[in-house]
Amino acid sequence: MDRAIAFYSDVLGLKLISRDVVARFDIDGVLFELVPGLDEAKPGRGGNGRLCLKVGDIGQAIEYMRSKTDRVGEIRKVENGRLASCEDPDGNEICLWQYD
Prior knowledge:
This protein has two helices and seven strands; from the N terminus they run H-E-E-E-E-H-E-E-E. By secondary structure, the chain is of the alpha+beta class.
């Protein structure tokens, strides 16, 4: 949990607002929680959630993420913008999206 909290606060810049068993972050007024899995020996990919973050410059955002982790995909053109996926330290998907 400490590693995940550090990633979301230090790398993504989310504001940690409280922590007990669950870590809570504020994303522009939206509550985002990190909840430990039932089996802490098997982190990641236990759920089907995905965090999507809107970015102003996807090229700059991906360059920054590549400086922090090697778990970053390529930018893809989609119908209404461009997106790229990366993973947190536990393998959960984070999608960076720039609308055109």
